[in-house]
Amino acid sequence: MKIPPVKGTRDFYPQEMAVRNWIIDGWKKVSLRNGFEEYDGPIFEYLKMFQLKSGDEIVEQLFSLTDRGGRDLALRPEMTPTLARMVNQRINSLPRPVKWFSVPRLFRAERPQKGRLREFFQWNIDIIGEDSVLADAEVIFTTVDYLRQVGLTDRDIKVKISSRKFLAGFLKGLGIPEQKLGALYVLLDKSSKLPADAFEELLIEQIPEKSISDKILKFMTEQSSEQMIDLIGPNECARTALDEINQVFEYLKNMGVSDYCIFDPGIVRGLAYYTGIVFEVHDVVGELRAICGGGRYDNLLKDFGGPAIPATGMGMGDCVLEILLREKWLLEKQLPEARLEYFVACVDESFKDATVGITMALRSRGFAANFSYKSGKLSKQLKQASDSNAKKCIIIGEEFKDKKLVIKDMVTGRQEEVEEDKFFAGLEKS
Ligand code: HAM
């Protein structure tokens, strides 16, 4: 009986594993150079932790289980609740601001589609304990720092920035009560993912007064902050939030990434806990789902039983990113070749022990080395050396009786005889 892999999961054969490692190595490098420290948590948590504040969409997508003691658990669909729990646990001893990153494996029972799977990796960067929008700008800078490093230009991607505070101020100014906002955010977040008429229909279900729903539609599509000032009028809360957005753009300009960034009031974010600046990175063509998303969540630590400490961060999955990098031919160009430093071959079976011995001597000095289990024809072994992308091949033959090795450069094809002692002494020096 053949058992297929579960839908929405991936098998990482060595080729796919090389891509995954390259993406994750890049995330880690960029995190470290931007001053973030790595952390991790458990893959499963109490179910109620994710039900508390992530929002209905995530709750519907939970993979949940019950342990033998009857406790309800869930595989983590996102990292932010775990982060909030961990920081709260040590709140008095952690130096602030906490600037942490993580690359968790996450699980969401989504309908698998292009760029969305049921198991994926997500780079998280978060800053906890800083309320200045300079921290929001730094999260955005770090995100762009990575995307720019892998070769994506401002003609390929845009960071679309807005603010939950701004949207909330605007909606409250229209007379929409606080308790209606949560459901409205979820719908507004879908505005670019749904056909226009379907979206309008759903909006009218929530906001039946046409004059108000028209204003919301206009708000979602206005692009400049000048037009926004007209639309929000003398709304104090929305004006303060707009000042904050402008401040973020000032910082981003100073950081040298403003060409990547645009103001887009249509960015709402699906998760329930955002309170301030929010952003998403999208491909310019607009064909793919968001590459990443994040924002400020100043109430989450308090909601999780901790003190009121501000926080901001972002999450980037590996799926859409990989699709985009392939589309732009950026992956093939940059993926490091898996190279073996030495392949050790022998001319016949009588040199087998020497072959194994030399290979192990190389490995114990830290070199990637391999040999063939079968000491058949030398040409076959050389083919294996070339298939495994070895830089050099050491051929053990008659010369070995005089303590000499034949070293073949697999790139130039040149061959030379070297005394074994000298060869190993040379290795130690390099
Ligand atoms: P999110 O918008 O749910 O935010 O996810 C962020 C990113 O994770 C998405 O833009 C996408 O790249 C990736 N992602 C989400 N779901 C899937 C999926 N099913 N398959 C593949 N990739 C996916 C959060 O998770 C927030 N916790 C991010 C955050 C951190 N906010 C503040 N700090």
Task: Tell me about this structure.
With 430 residues, the protein is of the alpha+beta class. It is 43% helix and 20% strand. The protein has helices at residues 14-33, 47-53, 56-60, 80-89, 133-149, 164-173, 178-189, 196-206, 210-221, 225-232, 236-254, 300-303, 318-327, 330-334, 352-364, 378-387, 420-429; strands spanning 37-38, 44-46, 64-66, 72-75, 98-102, 105-107, 119-128, 157-163, 261-263, 277-283, 292-296, 311-317, 340-346, 369-371, 390-396, 404-409, 415-419. Helix 1 (14-33) packs antiparallel against helix 5 and helix 6 (164-173) packs antiparallel against helix 11. The radius of gyration is 28 Å and the shape is elongated. The model has no long low-confidence stretch (mean pLDDT 93). The structure holds histidyl-adenosine monophosphate.
Key terms for this structure?
BirA Bifunctional Protein, domain 2; binds histidyl-adenosine monophosphate; 430 residues; alpha+beta; Rossmann fold
